[in-house]
Design the sequence.
């Protein structure tokens, strides 16, 4: 079997984890490995049934088209050496078929102690400091599968108390994943190749918080998705980009490439690291459509199922460091884009309102931009427009009906 191409411009991948063991019998289309590209993690399915022999180890970087394993198709599926053990009474639950040995109840040649993680599960557990005792395995003999770990993490798994310093002088080394190496390479190139500058402003979040409080139940009931802040920011950004197209453009050689659409990248945290899935044509979406698409992409990123195509081609990016408690930061541009908007945490602060001091929920915003293509006037005006629309949600839409209800699609 050769490594298939995960997408355009990807020439090599890293073997993240083998999902089977050397010499195992595998079925056609069974997931046998996970491979990391510089954009996403993908599963590698078996092309034929037979016994497998590895030609690459976990952690190896291999080129697209390189042979990574050999499947002996002349091998027969192992027969049950024991009397008829009633394991076939569980034929139906096939959602986990990717992680388990296929249909034949005896294709797994070895049994595992309860709580033993699969290679893919063990890798994610190590990255997130999760212990076997915190997760219930649904695989054969109680084996912990990748899906079990991801489900536990998504439900807010309570992490163990971190151990204190051991007073030793030991050090350890960990290999950087291909995704992390690519992120490092891109961030350095941005700092070296762009004239990056950041401008700041602050947002009074009370109007949007009041709007959410009033309509969140009706919104969730009608659209089957929660109303969050990200949809408001995405909507405000697309409206501002229409007024200041240079913020939505990029440099291509000696030319400026202008976009008549807004594909907004939304930075999300995943077990693999920071990923930026793209909401296509966000300028034509309603708040409900934006929320649904962000939720869909975030779940795929969390589960490691997002594709390279879903993370390429954005024209502008929004990142929210506030969910981790950041008060202020200078986000780095996501190339080849020319600007990125950074959201931060919401803190009650004293502000002057009509000559009086009031306590309001304030968020600081930061816009980092490439000064080669965006002038200071455009960047500041863009951020002021975003602030204006967020503090006056009615200005995002027009119509005779109650503007807030039109905006929410009620």
Sequence:
């Amino acid at each position: 079997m050769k490594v298939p191409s995960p997408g355009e411009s990807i020439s090599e991948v890293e073997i993240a984890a083998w999902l089977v063991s050397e010499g195992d019998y595998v079925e056609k289309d069974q997931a046998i490995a996970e491979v990391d590209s510089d954009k996403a993690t993908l599963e590698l399915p078996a092309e034929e049934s037979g016994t497998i022999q590895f030609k690459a180890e976990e952690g190896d970087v291999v080129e697209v088209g390189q042979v990574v394993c050999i499947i002996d198709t002349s091998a027969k599926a192992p027969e049950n050496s024991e009397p008829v053990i009633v394991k076939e009474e569980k034929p139906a639950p096939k959602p986990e078929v990717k992680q388990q040995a296929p249909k034949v109840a005896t294709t797994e040649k070895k049994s595992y102690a309860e709580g033993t993680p699969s290679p893919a599960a063990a890798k994610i557990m190590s990255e997130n400091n999760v212990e076997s005792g915190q997760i219930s395995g649904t695989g054969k003999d109680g084996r912990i599968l990748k899906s079990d770990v991801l489900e536990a993490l998504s439900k807010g798994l309570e992490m163990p108390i971190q151990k204190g310093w051991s007073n030793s002088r030991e050090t350890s080394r960990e290999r950087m994943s291909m995704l992390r190496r690519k992120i490092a390479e891109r961030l350095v190139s941005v700092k070296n190749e762009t004239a990056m500058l950041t401008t700041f402003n602050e947002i009074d979040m009370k109007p949007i918080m009041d709007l959410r409080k009033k309509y969140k139940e009706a919104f969730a009931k009608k659209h089957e998705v929660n109303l969050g802040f990200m949809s408001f920011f995405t909507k405000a950004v697309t409206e501002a980009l229409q007024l200041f197209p240079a913020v939505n453009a990029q440099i291509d050689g000696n030319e400026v490439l202008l976009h008549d659409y807004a594909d907004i990248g939304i930075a999300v945290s995943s077990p693999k690291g920071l990923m930026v899935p793209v909401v296509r044509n966000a300028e034509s979406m309603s708040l409900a459509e934006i929320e649904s698409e962000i939720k869909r992409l975030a779940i795929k990123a969390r589960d490691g199922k997002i594709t390279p195509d879903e993370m390429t081609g954005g024209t502008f990016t929004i990142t929210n460091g506030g969910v981790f408690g950041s008060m202020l930061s200078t986000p780095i541009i996501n190339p080849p884009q020319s600007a990125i908007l950074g959201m931060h945490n919401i803190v009650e602060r004293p502000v002057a309102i009509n000559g009086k001091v009031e306590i309001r929920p304030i968020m600081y915003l930061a816009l980092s931009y490439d000064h080669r293509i965006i002038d200071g006037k455009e960047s500041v005006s863009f951020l002021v427009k975003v602030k204006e629309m967020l503090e006056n949600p009615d200005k995002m839409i027009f119509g005779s009906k109650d503007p807030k209800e039109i905006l929410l699609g009620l």
About this structure: The CA atoms of residues 349 and 355 lie 15 Å apart. Confidence is low (pLDDT under 50) at residues 81-112.
